[in-house]
Amino acid sequence: MAELIKIYKENPNPKEIKKVIDVLKGGGLVIYPTDTVYGLGCDITNIKALERIARIKSVKLEKSNFSFICQDLSNLSDYVKQIDTATFKILKRALPGPYTFILPGSKNLPHPFKKRKTVGIRIPNNAITLEIVKQLGNPLVSTSIRDEDFVIEYTTDPELILEKWDNLVDLVIDGGYGDNEASTVIDLSQGEPVVVREGKGSLEIF
Fold this sequence. Notes:
By secondary structure, the protein is an alpha/beta fold. It is 26% helix and 21% strand. It contains six helices and ten strands. The longest helix has 12 residues, at 14-25.
């Protein structure tokens, strides 16, 4: 049975954030709000938690397309090869925001992702998410929680999310209604921006 906790994005309560951190550090799975749709995440350093997410999504962990949720651009050097000034300027202009950027992966990627040539990086403009990643001390590995209903692709109500995911995750954060439009995905791994998926983030900044 998952626990539902309310956290206000205007002023995330440190006690509630600590509860989330304890769950993550214990290998738990958490559903949390972002600036787009709700995400399913775990501690990037916990192999068992990573394997649980891969099983839920019916993918092999090594071949998964999970994103890394970072606190800010200082996390990049851990997982991304050195990028040029033009690429850095794009990231600085767009983040935090509703974008996922595909960047060339470094040799320091966590063990399950060692063979990846690229990595998806996300810094959502959501105080709850950013505070969780800050207090955790390393990124979350994350994936969107999709709905089987093709009309409503993403569930936006945290209580409905809890109903559906109750037996699969350990904690659901109620951060208010989510969006039903996913992030815009931009591939910067070859230098020039390539739009992989148009979502909530505007393309005008490119």
